[in-house]
Amino acid sequence: MRLSRPVAAVLLVLVVLLLVWLMLGQGGAGEDPGADAPRPSPTAQAQDADPAEDPVEDPTPEAPDDTAADDGFAPFDPDAEGGSTDGTGGEEPRGVDTRDWDGIDACRDDELPVELDEVADDVEAGGPFDYPGKDGSTFGNYEGYLPEESRGYYREYTVETPGLDHRGARRIVAGGGTTDPEVWYYTDDHYESFCEFAP
């Protein structure tokens, strides 16, 4: 038996629709979405919805463009008594990214130990150092975490770790000069990662 073209076209469309219906129904195969299933509340539906598909309007008003949202911190006021940019009421933050092209971020102030200041002072004074055979020696940058420079550009210095009876993992790596370095890096994991600071 041979079918006419219009009948064959209708049958083809029906088969395609059946296949699409079966593919879409695969996730719920064997389930009866009858009245026995509890329906989620509108609140639960809003929580489960994908924000990209069905955005829910936030009922809280937006802050005006000229004011920042309240994050618990007052804006810095240099004229205020005891004002500072690091929130300690004293010195300026020491984390400084002087080489924004090097991919190494500025140190957070809470990353820098108090012992670092004494070592930085010793570097700027040309010594003396706690480990004379090691401190001030060339840092090879073999791992390549710091920007590539000529041999001897970087020098390493030990930053004491309280409670240890050996050098530990904390170091300053300074580059560009023995008593007036151009750049200062700190590592607390023996050269696995660095951040940049200014003494």
UniProtKB/TrEMBL annotation:
Q: List all membrane-crossing ranges.
A: none
> InterPro entries in the record, alphabetically?
N1-like, Ribonuclease/ribotoxin
Q: Where is the composition biased (Low complexity)?
A: 35-49, 70-83
Q: Where is this region: Disordered?
A: 30-104
Q: Which domain of life is it from?
A: Bacteria
Composition bias of kind Acidic residues appears in 50-69
Q: Where is the signal peptide?
A: none
What keywords are assigned to this protein?
A: Hydrolase, Nuclease
Basic and acidic residues composition-biased segments: 91-104
Do you know which Pfam families this protein is assigned to? Answer: Ribonuclease
Supply the name of the protein.
Ribonuclease domain-containing protein
Originating species: Ornithinimicrobium kibberense
